[in-house]
Amino acid sequence: MPPPLEEVANPARPSAAEEAQTVAATTNVGTLASLTRDGDPWASFVTYGLLDDSPVLCVSQMAEHGRNLAHDPRASIAIVAPNPPADPLASTRITLAGYVYRPEGDELAAAREAHLAAIPAAHVYIDFSDFSLWVLRVLRVQRIRRLRANGLRERRVLRRRHRGSGHPVRRPGDRITVSAGGRQCHRQFAAAYRSTNDQHRSRRSR
């Protein structure tokens, strides 16, 4: 097991990034937000698998959101932890935001396997010519967790900072802004949502 990336303040409580990973892994459905050609928001119920904590979508080009992703790769997916309490707003939920891309080569095969592992029924249509696999490159993570019944919630936002215009791209050394209760601190990208798998891959490559 790899050592902690930072000093653990409360070992009994997972970090915001770890909790977000757990929520994403405990279900296979979410609400995808995409943009139409006119710039209008469009929400769609979707299924997904996970490839190194990145959602893998299998989308038809005939679907509105399929056409949206092909036109503008910016997207986000809202995921709610299963088995909600009596108050749906008391459920832990996350939003993963970034941009989608079509995997190629070995990554395409791995993405296909990841989606089928989560959605076995997709074997019926996953190879149809009008369906495509999309991987969401996560640049920002928001986790919302209800702390008490009086409505107090804890919000933590992990935001990828990027420079330049156009669609954001992943760059070595990019930093994360973690917002919690109005306070901000900076962490290296390795400590964010994808950090655990990034570290495992680095250790395996040595």
What distance separates the N and C termini?
15 Å
Order of helices and strands: HEEEEHEEHEEEEH
User: What best-fitting shape do the alpha-carbon axes yield?
Assistant: globular
Query: Radius of gyration, rounded?
Result: 17 Å
Low-pLDDT parts are: 148-156, 158-191
Largest sheet: 10 strands, antiparallel
Number of helices in the DSSP assignment: 4
Please tell me the total number of domains: 1
Question: Under the CATH scheme, which architecture would be assigned?
Answer: Roll
CATH fold group:
Pnp Oxidase, Chain A
**How many beta-strand runs?**
10
Strand content: 35-45%
The CATH homologous superfamily is called: Electron Transport, Fmn-binding Protein, Chain A
InterPro entries: Pyridox_Oxase_N, Split_barrel_FMN-bd
Pfam families: PNPOx_N
Protein name: Pyridoxamine 5'-phosphate oxidase family protein
Region (Disordered): 159-181
Describe the protein's architecture and organization.
- The structure is a single chain.
- This protein is an alpha+beta fold and 206 residues long.
- The chain has a single domain (16-205), classed as Pnp Oxidase, Chain A.
- The chain has 4 helices and 10 strands.
- Strands 1, 2, 3, 4, 5, 6, 7, 8, 9 and 10 form a 10-stranded antiparallel β-sheet that branches.
- A hairpin with a 5-residue loop joins strand 1 and strand 2.
- The longest helix is centred in the middle third of the chain and has 14 residues, at 105-118.
- It is globular.
- Pfam families: PNPOx_N (PF01243).
- This is Pyridoxamine 5'-phosphate oxidase family protein.
- InterPro entries: Pyridox_Oxase_N, Split_barrel_FMN-bd.
- Residues 18-142 form the Pyridoxamine 5'-phosphate oxidase N-terminal domain.
